[in-house]
């Protein structure tokens, strides 16, 4: 079947979006669908380009048996033209992405909040950067619920 492409976006690409990307990648691998999906994550801003995810994000993922080698990057014009879905974490990401996409000819990506897929209806995935380990765990749980529901819908 047709390959589906998904990108997950947050402001700096070191906390929420790399967690979501790693979670989604593990789900598609567990379901033996990895040849059907191309998953990446990116930032709206250029603050952290080239940096590895926050150490608390990495240790949260490791606690759930997930590794990631992601390095932060900024979203590009090509992302809007090649990805089918661009899922973001909060309203300010959504506004920024919609604004950027309006400047792109032939934007094919459907831009949405990842939280719209949450069966528990938590629409916003809050940035845990200034929080505690527990906040990273909350982000992980939200990403897991949303990514599962998203995959069920589009698989």
Structure in words:
By secondary structure, the protein is of the alpha/beta class. The protein has a single domain, classed as 3-Layer(aba) Sandwich (Rossmann fold), CATH 3.40.50.2300. Helix content is 41%, strand content 14%. It has five helices and four strands, in the order βαβααβαβα. The chain has helices at residues 16-30, 55-63, 77-82, 91-101, 133-154; strands spanning 4-10, 37-43, 85-88, 110-113. It has a four-stranded parallel beta sheet, with helices on both faces. Helix 4 links the parallel strand 3 and strand 4. Helix 1 crosses helix 5 and helix 2 packs across helix 5 (133-154). The longest helix has 22 residues, at 133-154. It is globular. 40% of the residues are buried. The mean pLDDT is 95.
Structure in a nutshell:
This protein has 155 residues and is α/β, with parallel strands linked by helices. It is built from five helices and four strands, in the order E-H-E-H-H-E-H-E-H. Strands 2-1-3-4 form a four-stranded parallel sheet, with helices on both faces.
How far apart are the first and last residues' alpha carbons, in Å? 10 Å
**Order of helices and strands, N to C?**
EHEHHEHEH
Question: Helix tally?
Answer: 5
User: Per CATH, what is the topology?
Assistant: Rossmann fold
Report the major sheet: 4 strands, parallel
Shape field: globular
Cross-sheet strand order for the largest sheet = 2-1-3-4
Rg calculated over all Cα atoms: 14 Å
**Beta strand %:** 5-15%
The helix-and-strand class reads alpha/beta
Give start-end ranges of low-pLDDT stretches: none
Subunit organisation of the chains: single chain
**Annotation, overall tally of beta strands:** 4
Enzyme class: hydrolase
EC number: 3.1.3.2, 3.1.3.48
Main location: cytoplasm
Protein name: Low molecular weight phosphotyrosine protein phosphatase
């Amino acid at each position: 079947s047709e390959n589906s492409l998904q990108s997950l976006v947050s402001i700096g690409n070191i906390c929420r979006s790399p967690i979501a990307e790693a979670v989604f990648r593990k789900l598609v691998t567990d379901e033996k669908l990895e040849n059907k999906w191309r998953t990446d994550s990116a930032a709206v801003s250029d603050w952290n380009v080239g940096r590895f995810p926050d150490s608390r994000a990495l240790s949260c993922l490791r606690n759930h048996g997930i590794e990631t080698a992601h390095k932060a990057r900024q979203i590009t014009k090509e992302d809007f033209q090649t990805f089918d879905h661009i899922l973001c974490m909060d309203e300010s990401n959504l506004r920024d992405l919609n604004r950027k996409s309006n400047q792109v000819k032939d934007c094919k990506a459907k831009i949405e909040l990842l939280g719209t897929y949450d069966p528990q209806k938590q629409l916003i995935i809050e940035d845990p950067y200034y929080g505690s380990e527990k906040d990273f765990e909350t982000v992980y749980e939200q990403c897991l619920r949303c990514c599962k529901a998203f995959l069920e819908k589009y698989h």
